[in-house]
């Protein structure tokens, strides 16, 4: 019987690499503060990168998400149009700007949520 390869060290290495990428990008877009740009919330477990113009789905289709997105931002020299927001402020912003993810899918047009 073939022994399974232990990938725990690879998982740790990949996680550390992801955290370094995210930290580098968040550091730039939050001016080193690592807080929500709207409310100042500082718990990194609830922070994420926001596309200011609400074009995140289209941008992610082009460059990918996660580490691919972060690598592309670094490679492009940190282009403008991004900010660090907490998830609550992201949801409020999406509601205020009518940035519902389903708006891009014609299947959902005209539906009313109850």
- How many beta-strand segments? 2
Using the CA coordinates, give the radius of gyration.
17 Å
Instruction: Provide a count of the helices.
Output: 4
Q: Helix/strand/pairing class, anyone?
A: mainly alpha
Report low-confidence residues grouped into runs of 5 or more. Answer: none
Which overall shape is indicated by the principal axes computed on the Cα atoms?
A: elongated
Features of the shown structure:
114 residues; mainly alpha; 4 helices; 2 strands; elongated
Describe this entry's structure for a reader:
The protein has a domain of 76 residues. The radius of gyration is 17 Å and the shape is elongated. It has 4 helices and 2 strands, in the order αβααβα. By secondary structure, the chain is mostly helical. The model has no long low-confidence stretch (mean pLDDT 86).
Short description:
By secondary structure, the chain is mostly helical.
Question: How do the helices and strands line up, and which of them pair or pack?
Answer:
Layout: H1 8-29, E1 47-51, H2 56-63, H3 67-75, E2 82-86, H4 87-96
Antiparallel strand pairs: 1-2
Helix pairs in contact: 1-3
């Amino acid at each position: 019987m073939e022994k399974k390869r232990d990938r725990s060290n690879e998982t740790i290495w990949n996680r550390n690499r992801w955290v370094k990428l995210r930290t580098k990008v968040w550091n730039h877009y939050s001016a080193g503060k690592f807080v929500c740009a709207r409310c100042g919330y500082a718990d990194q477990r609830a922070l994420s990168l926001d596309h200011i113009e609400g074009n995140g789905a289209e941008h992610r289709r082009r460059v990918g998400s996660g580490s691919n997105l972060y690598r592309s931002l670094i490679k492009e020299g940190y282009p403008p149009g991004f900010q660090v927001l907490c998830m609550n402020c992201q949801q409020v912003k999406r509601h205020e700007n009518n940035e519902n993810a389903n708006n891009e899918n014609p299947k959902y047009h005209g539906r009313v949520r109850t």
